[in-house]
Write a structure and sequence with these properties.
Elements (H helix, E strand, L loop, with lengths): L5 H9 L40 H19 L3 E8 L2 E12 L4 E2 L6 E2 L6 H13 L27 H5 L13 E2 L8 H7 L16 H15 L3 H13 L4 E2 L15 E2 L6 E2 L3 E2 L8 E3 H12 L3 E2 L2 E2 L3 H8 L18 E2 L8 E6 L4 E7 L4 E7 L8 H16 L11 H11 L1 E5 L10 H5 L2 E5 L5 E7 L5 E8 L2 E4 L5 E7 L2 E7 L8 E3 L6 H32 L7 H33 L8 H32 L6 H23 L10
Antiparallel strand pairs: 1-2, 1-16, 2-3, 4-10, 5-9, 6-10, 7-8, 11-12, 13-14, 14-15, 15-16, 17-18, 17-24, 18-19, 19-20, 20-21, 21-22, 22-23
Length: 669
């Protein structure tokens, strides 16, 4: 499945199936989701010879795949569009745009939400301004803004960094999706007051950034002198005849009757129209027919039926300028698009997810073929993710088959390289300087090896839900055993500095987790500490009840009595505050409560953490000192031991609060 990023792990912890993407080749507006189960569509063995891509064969294959996949996955509806040689080969709707009304999907007019596929319009518009000489790809973005983004390690962010997701911004999710149309922010002021912290130098580490794409939209607005929505309509949609496409939120009245409903599951109620806080990264709505026009334009180097949205040289530059961070063996980021090559065929792609809509766009430039599909439900057990993964894989293997990458490495080298890669890692698309960084503790990736020197990366799983195994085929390059995906690493001074896998490598890498926040020791220590603290607090009234039942007197006096009571109050407070943080994060993700409405409660937790965590640690240390100096005899062994447990537990909670910014007052996350 697709590599899990930070938010995904907490979703798993919450045991909720939130629609943020598992194993989808393109990056999503929302971070990925780990809970998708094994593929629920019928598997079709990949043919050994090329199957002709004709309308008849394609429709027959899709008609066998899609209806069963939708029903089995409890997915309401979908649209699939395939273009070839400048024409629509097939566009077809499956299932329902509105389940209650039994309204079928019309591929020409029914609107779906493509999520981060929307970025392709934004990147195309930005390249139009590059082509016109109004924007320089390698210029400091501050050249085009009315607020300043400071350099990091002496390096400014460039426009190229925006397009390649190498800005160095940390992941931010506050106000990513909102529910109240009146709360939709104005783009410029929103961006100027929500600048994410920088955690990498520009150009060095891929880390997918919705904020970066929103900046690109604002640059378009500033340079063109037109509102972003107007510019896209006049310079992308209108020339291509895309009359069923819009970035406007809420939807214009003329398009509302055409909008597909979004669902968690088809058997459940329809959900409200999703609003993206800053629209350039993912706020559009579009029909399959209009997406066909956009795909054909890019497949024909910027031209559709005599109308040009890009000059050929500009389109070729956009499609063919890869950024190599780890290895050319892996998929790489292009200018807005990214590689998803398979079977020796060049593919440029993007995809995206909102909560209820899930989409992919795949272009085969050398084969003059484009594929787009979008679903309007998450489905049962997040079924949409394996369904779409299998759809892409089987389409490609059916019509563009080819061998898996080959190679062989000396067994001794393979063993040494696998050992170098083994360890614990954080994803680069992560929150780091806010309380949301606690998610990193719960989403840490691990790489292990087996007896055959295969590499097993915990976040990288197959359609059966099991971790994939990789064998080394070139120095620090591994291929999936029995498959085609690749994993590669980059090393310096004999140590791995980052690795990634084909499914995410253009925009997400994994880096070694520092020891001070490594989940291997800290996560079990934290949960054990919470348990010890709450057990200590719970035992207080229980022991008192037992004494009352048997008429026993409380034997401790003086400082021992004060210490006994104080440390239990401190344990209760510390355990409850940390538990409240975890439950708050679960609730926020489960309900997508990432807006200002949570600010008072988060501020309260911050203030409690500032007071409770240090005082609890001091109380535990004082209790231990009193226990060791005033309690005598072998009967005090348990009291001595448990006082040490409380010291360690409160210190672990305090350490967690410091490292993951629970002790602080930040509301920017």
């Amino acid at each position: 499945m697709r590599i899990k990023a930070a938010v995904a792990a907490l979703m798993a912890l919450a045991c909720v199936a939130l629609p943020v993407g598992a194993q989808q080749r393109p990056a999503a507006l929302l971070p990925p989701h780990p809970t998708a189960k094994a593929v629920i569509a019928p598997a079709t063995p990949a043919p050994q010879t090329t199957q002709a891509l004709t309308r008849e064969d394609l429709e027959s294959w899709l008609d066998g795949y899609m209806p069963f996949a939708l029903r089995r996955g409890d997915i309401a509806g979908a649209v699939v569009v395939v273009v070839k040689d400048g024409q629509v080969l097939l566009q077809k709707g499956y299932g329902y745009a509105d389940v209650a009304a039994k309204k079928p999907v019309d591929p020409e007019t029914t609107l779906f939400r493509p999520g981060s596929v929307s970025k392709l319009y934004t990147w195309t518009a930005l390249m139009q301004l590059v082509e016109a000489g109004k924007v320089d790809l390698d210029a400091d973005v501050n050249t085009y803004l009315d607020f300043k983004i400071p350099p990091y390690q002496g390096k400014p962010i460039t426009v190229r960094n925006l397009m390649t997701h190498t800005t160095g911004f940390e992941e931010v999710i506050k106000n990513l999706l909102i529910t109240d149309p009146k709360a939709l922010p104005e783009l410029g002021p929103y961006l100027g007051t929500h600048i994410p912290d920088r955690i990498f130098a520009p150009g060095e580490v891929p880390a997918y950034s919705n904020y970066g794409a929103a900046l690109a939209g604002y640059i378009i607005q500033r340079v063109s002198g037109q509102p972003f929505d107007d510019y896209i309509e006049q310079h992308i949609f209108a020339p291509l005849g895309m009359t069923h496409a819009t970035f406007r939120q809420p939807l214009p009245d003329r398009l509302k009757p055409l909008m597909a409903q979004g669902y968690s599951v088809a058997s459940g109620p329809a959900k409200p129209y999703e609003l993206v806080g800053a629209s350039p990264p993912g706020g559009s709505a579009i029909s399959g027919g209009d997406m066909a026009r956009f795909m054909i334009a890019h497949l024909q180097d910027g031209e559709y039926q005599g109308q040009r949205i890009l000059q050929a040289a500009t389109a070729q530059k956009m499609h063919g300028t890869p950024l190599t961070i780890i290895s050319p063996s892996l998929h790489r980021m292009l200018l807005g698009f990214y590689e998803t090559d398979r079977n020796g065929h060049r593919i440029i792609a993007h995809g995206g997810d909102l909560r209820w809509f899930h989409s992919d766009l795949e272009l085969f430039p050398d084969d003059h073929v484009g594929l787009f599909f979008s679903f309007n439900s998450v489905g049962r057990d997040a079924a949409v993710y394996p369904v779409r993964e299998a759809l892409f894989d089987e389409f490609t293997d059916r019509y563009f088959p080819g061998p898996a990458p080959e190679g062989q490495v000396d067994p001794a080298v393979a063993k040494a390289d696998a050992a170098r890669l083994a360890g614990d890692y954080d994803g680069s698309r992560r929150p780091q300087d806010s309380f949301m960084s606690l998610l990193n503790l719960l989403s840490q990736a691990s790489v292990t090896t087996d007896k055959d020197n295969h590499v097993i990366a915990s976040p990288v799983t197959g359609l059966d839900g099991q971790p994939k195994r990789f064998e080394e085929i070139a120095p620090l390059v591994w291929r999936e055993v029995g498959g085609k995906d690749r994993l590669a690493a980059k090393a310096a001074d004999g140590h791995v500095t980052m690795w990634s896998e084909d499914g995410e490598s253009p925009f997400l890498v994994f880096q070694p987790t520092p020891g001070f926040r490594n989940a291997t020791w800290l996560k079990p220590a934290l949960f054990a500490s919470i348990a010890a603290l709450l057990l200590t607090a719970l035992s207080w009234p229980l022991v008192a009840l037992v004494r009352w039942r048997y008429g026993a007197r409380f034997a401790l006096k003086g400082m021992l009595a004060v210490s006994y009571r104080s440390v239990r109050i401190a344990a209760l407070a510390s355990g409850l505050v940390m538990t409240a943080w975890l439950l708050t994060l679960v609730t926020m993700i489960q309900n997508y409560a990432f807006g200002a409405g949570m600010d008072p409660w988060i501020t309260t937790l911050h203030l409690l953490s500032i007071v409770v965590f240090p005082l609890a640690a001091l109380a535990a240390v004082a209790n231990a000192g009193i226990a060791f100096t005033q309690r005598k005899g072998w009967r005090s062994l348990f009291a001595w031991g448990w006082s040490v447990v409380l010291v360690l537990s409160t210190l672990v909670v305090l350490w967690t609060g410091i490292v993951f910014h629970l002790i602080g007052l930040g509301l920017h996350y």
